Amino acid sequence: MRAVLQRVSRASVEVEDRRVGAIEEGLLILLGISREDGDEDLDWLARRIPRLRLFDDEEGVPNRSAVDIGGGFLVISQFTLHADTRKGNRPSYRRAADPAPARALYERFLARLGEESGLPVESGEFGAMMDIAASLWGPVTIQLDSRNREG
Q1: Which candidate in 79, 85, 141, 143 is catalytic?
Q2: Which of 10, 14, 48, 72 lies in disulfide reach of 131, CB 3.0 to 4.6 Å?
Q3: Is 109 labeled as catalytic in the residue annotation?
Q4: pLDDT tens readout for residues 21-53
């Protein structure tokens, strides 16, 4: 699984002009699921993300996690994080998981992230065309990859 985390002062997602998820201070998480991903990957990310110290303390040093600040998470499924751009000009998405298994992992990830953090977890609509708005705070953007245990 690949995740791109963006620290936000607020973020929201709409599907067909209907707001389906929104948070104030917290993390916007773009989540890409590959064909090889499983529960071990989602568990690693769900444990790692809430503990990352990406928020400033009183002295302006990023020593606080989303849990520490009582933030929220807005998770958006994004298969394009597994794009292969090595050949040609059109990315290939063969590494991305098929929709049915990806949806199941995505939904389990949402639940697990909520369990691990105790924080609100909002989400987009899996497989839908979404309009995402975010006020990036910093900006702070972090990439995580469960396969490489990077991040």
Answers
A1: 79
A2: 14
A3: no
A4: 999 999 999 999 999 999 999 999 999 999 999
Q: What is the pTM of this model?
A: 0.94
What pLDDT was estimated at residue 26?
A: 98
To the nearest 10°, report the CA torsion of 132, 134, 140, 142.
-20
Q: Which domains does the chain have, with CATH numbers?
A: 2-145 (3.50.80.10)
d(CA 123, CA 125): 7
Phi, psi (degrees; rounded to nearest 5) at 110: -55, -45
Q: Catalytic: which of 73, 80, 85, 143?
A: 80
**Partner residues linked to 93 by β-bridges:** none
Burial of 16: CB neighbours in 10 Å, binned 0-12, 13-18, 19+: exposed
Q: Which of 6, 73, 78, 109 is catalytic?
A: 78
Q: Is 79 a catalytic residue?
A: yes
Q: What pLDDT is stored for residue 150 in this prediction?
A: 65
Which of 46, 50, 47, 148 shows the shortest CA–CA distance to 105? 46
